[in-house]
Amino acid sequence: MTELSDKDLENQVAAALEEVDDPELGIDLINLGLIYDIQVQKRTCTITMTLTIMGCPLADTLDKQIKEAVTAIAGIDECQINLVWEPAWSIDRLSRYARLTLGIHD
Predict the structure, then answer these.
(1) What highest taxon heads this organism's lineage (predicted)?
(2) Strands 78-83, 44-49: pairing kind
């Protein structure tokens, strides 16, 4: 079996993160715009992301769910999360799907 490229694995990680929902909003992390970057190198995935608010009470829950989803992908052994606050998250980062789901109309 051919080993997947890092780019292929990054695409699989993005797809896996579409299955990880914010428990309060019921929308996945990708559509919420919380994921800023995904990089895979040498079987390690590094995710740069933010949260909707500092001190989010769900941070530990999301951390666990993300790591479980990512390390379930064949070819990834480790997941590191780089939590950043710049650029700050805003509703401008929501996808069209998330906007419709939350009832936000432009």
Answers:
(1) Bacteria
(2) parallel
Q: Quick one: CATH architecture of 6-100?
A: 2-Layer Sandwich (3.30)
What is the tens place of the pLDDT at every residue in 17-27?
Answer: 999 999 888 99
Pairing of strands 35-41, 44-49: antiparallel
- Amino acid in position 95: S
Chain CA centroid to CA 88, Å:
15
Q: What's the pLDDT tens digit per position in 70-81?
A: 999 999 999 999
C-alpha distance from residue 26 to each of 22, 88, 93, 101 (Å): 5, 21, 16, 9
- Please report, to the nearest 10 degrees, the dihedral formed by the alpha carbons of residues 25, 15, 56, 40 taken in order: -170
Q: Answer yes or no: are the C-beta atoms of 79 and 49 closer than 8 Å.
A: no
Q: What are the structural domain ranges in the chain?
A: 6-100
